[in-house]
């Protein structure tokens, strides 16, 4: 029984990460791959431009910003179906997510590639952890999607792509 519970605990982060990736909203700075089964000329990897757009063969300029991976996949499939291919099989994956940023009292401040399921605590660990002068309670998060800043966020709070985390200095 203990082994079964341990196995579930180990696999749960991977299961939740897959669901998070499916709900992930594309934007500029994401690096995606598009694969069309049996059509090498239509399969490619693309860095989304500053407006979240890209040029795709036969379909012209496509808008990826604000769409999920599955929405973009359906757009490409429906665009290729009929005039170009009878029944296209398209997969879209995020190869490299856009960055999130950690500043302030961490050992290695800077930008890091986003990962589905990321929390404030994990982001700080990726940035090398707290310095000796860091406040464990005075942490700010500015969300990229709406620009709002939250003060005194907890370590278990979710981090999104483009978010900025600032760890302030402790007075003691």
Automatic annotation (TrEMBL):
Domain Polysaccharide export protein N-terminal: residue ranges: 19-94
A Pfam entry, by short name: SLBB
Keywords: Signal
InterPro entries: Poly_export, Poly_export_N, Soluble_ligand-bd
Signal peptide: 1-18
Residue ranges occupied by any Soluble ligand binding domain in the UniProt entry: 99-140
Highest taxon, organism lineage: Bacteria
PANTHER family recorded: POLYSACCHARIDE EXPORT PROTEIN GFCE-RELATED
Descriptive protein name: Polysaccharide export protein
């Amino acid at each position: 029984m203990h082994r079964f519970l341990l196995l579930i605990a180990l696999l749960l982060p991977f299961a939740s990460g897959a669901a998070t990736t499916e709900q992930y909203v594309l934007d500029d700075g994401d690096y995606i791959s598009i694969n069309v089964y049996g059509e090498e000329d239509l399969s490619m990897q693309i860095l989304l431009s500053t407006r979240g757009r890209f040029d795709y063969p036969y379909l012209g300029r496509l808008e990826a910003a604000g769409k999920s991976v599955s929405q973009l996949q359906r757009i490409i499939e429906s665009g290729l179906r009929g005039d170009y291919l009878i029944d296209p099989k398209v997969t879209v994956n995020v190869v490299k997510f856009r960055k999130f940023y950690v500043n302030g009292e961490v050992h290695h401040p800077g930008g890091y590639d986003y990962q589905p399921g990321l929390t404030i605590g994990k982001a700080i660990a990726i940035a090398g952890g707290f310095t000796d002068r860091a406040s464990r309670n005075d942490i700010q998060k500015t969300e990229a999607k709406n620009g709002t800043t939250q003060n005194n966020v907890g370590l278990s709070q979710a981090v999104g792509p483009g978010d900025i985390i600032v760890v302030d200095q402790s007075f003691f």
